[in-house]
Amino acid sequence: MSVSDSVASLPDLRVEASEVAGLPAYVLHDTASDLHSTWVPAAGMLGASLVHAGEELLWQGEGVGAYARARTFMGIPFLHPWANRLAGFGYRVAGRSVSLDPASPLLLQDDHGLPIHGVLTGRAWSVAELGADANRARLVATLDFDGPELLTAFPFPHRLRMEIQLGGGMLEVGVTVTPTGEDPVPISFGFHPYLQIPRVPRSQWEVDFPVERHLLMDSQQIPTGETETVAAISGAIGDRHWDDGYDRLRGRRFALRGGGRTIAVEFTEGYRVAQIFVPPGQEYICVEPMTAAPNALDGPDDALRWATPGRPYSASFRIVT
């Protein structure tokens, strides 16, 4: 990664233009907290790195190049217009029946052959603002969801605005959906942060997840519509693993501890569902902020939130170190 001259700076907070895997990128710096975050607009606004005190807190997978080419996940990917799975290659929402092409290069399929995690990985976002003030470094990017290819998969034109802020030892990520047509836009997006604690085996990490109501799933990890009340999740991970959704929470702060370090994911606005993904055989965990449950686009319309003309929808979360 080569870094050019700073494009926006204050003594402790700055944004630098950079390059990752041959793609333009931006690095936000919070020097006072020794926290640094890299974002790649040309790879669907991928959060590629979060380095604290010299250690990488995001699992790197096969790297940014593989993510941009083949949707090999890593870092902090943005999942839009749906997070998690759909039950099939079609859905019905707002009175519209949408058919998805299984051969479309826009789509990623899970192990069951179902479409998962939206369509925006390879889309280049436009950088609208770079700056720093006394409290944070900031990157704002936008994307118009209005091309024929995109609207075939999700026929609701809108503009996305993502605001990345770094300061005070925390990274905050906000998204606003603004309709650009006459129709409301159903909201079902999310993020997939891959978190790691360097130098400590995952089995020794301890978690505090303030979950309350668990979504029961079928054999393909699609909600059945049934739920169960559960206790909050806490303690060492050990040999436990999860791929579970929760649509009622006891709190908004999901904490991960190990090796004297604490990393917390906090849902600050607009996120109603948490997906906990801790697969066997890996050294990461994911606390996924989601605006709706899996397959919500094919559920009842009144279970969704909507962005309407004149009333955008916003959601945000932060990672605190």
Which residue ranges are poorly predicted, with pLDDT under 50 across at least 5 consecutive positions? 1-5
Number of strands: 27
Question: In angstroms, what separates the terminal alpha carbons?
Answer: 24 Å
Major β-sheet annotation: 9 strands, antiparallel
The helix count comes to 2
Share of residues in helices? under 10%
Mean pLDDT: 95
Spatial shape: globular
The largest sheet has its strands arranged as 10-11-12-13-27-23-22-17-20
User: Radius of gyration, Cα only, in angstroms?
Assistant: 19 Å
Backbone structural class: mainly beta
| Pattern of helices and strands | EEEEEEHEEEEEHEEEEEEEEEEEEEEEE
Strand content: over 45%
Written account of the structure:
- The protein is built from two helices and 27 strands.
- The protein has helices at residues 64-70, 148-153; strands at 3-9, 13-20, 23-30, 35-40, 46-52, 55-56, 78-79, 90-93, 96-99, 126-132, 137-145, 158-167, 170-179, 185-187, 190-191, 194-195, 206-209, 211-217, 223-229, 233-236, 242-249, 253-258, 261-269, 273-278, 285-290, 305-307, 313-320.
- The strands form six sheets. It has a nine-stranded antiparallel β-sheet, with no helix packed on it. Strands 1-2-3-4-5-6 form a six-stranded antiparallel β-sheet, with no helix packed on it. A six-stranded antiparallel β-sheet has the order 16-25-24-21-18-19, with no helix packed on it.
- A hairpin with a 2-residue loop joins strand 12 (158-167) and strand 13.
- It starts with a strand and ends with a strand.
